[in-house]
Amino acid sequence: MKEVLTIRVAITDCLEVKGKSECARMILFDGTCDCEYFKGKVLPGGVDTQKDLAGKETMLSARYILEGQDSEGQNCRIFIENNGQVDKNGQISAIPHIITDSNALSFLENAELKSTVEGIEGGVLVHIFLMS
Length: 132
What we know:
- The chain is mostly beta strands.
- The chain has a single domain, classed as Porin.
- It is built from no helices and eight strands.
- The protein has strands at residues 2-18, 22-34, 38-53, 58-70, 75-86, 92-100, 113-120, 123-130.
- Strands 6-5-4-3-2-1-8-7 form an eight-stranded antiparallel sheet, with no helix packed on it.
- A hairpin with a 3-residue loop joins strand 2 (22-34) and strand 3 (38-53).
- The chain is globular.
- The N and C termini lie close together (6 Å).
């Protein structure tokens, strides 16, 4: 397992609706990425949509676009959709899907990926790993 992207997410707002048996929230964010494969920023519009079901895990779906330079110094964008769940212990298990216009990073579009999330002050670190 090799880490290919680490995104430093800074939460900018949180919108929430609490119903009788469910809660939905949209966490808005920006951020940066500075790693071996890519250096850049999260473009405006990044959102993590979460849905809490009474007595069950929280389901999440984060979607955002990174803009910057790939490992070959070429300007590019990366779309990330990260779907998963938060278990009762707060651990996040998610599977990212990537679309990119970078030739150097195109291998990520069909790769088996996994992500973990680590809490930091004001946001989270998203670690994306290549499984094979």
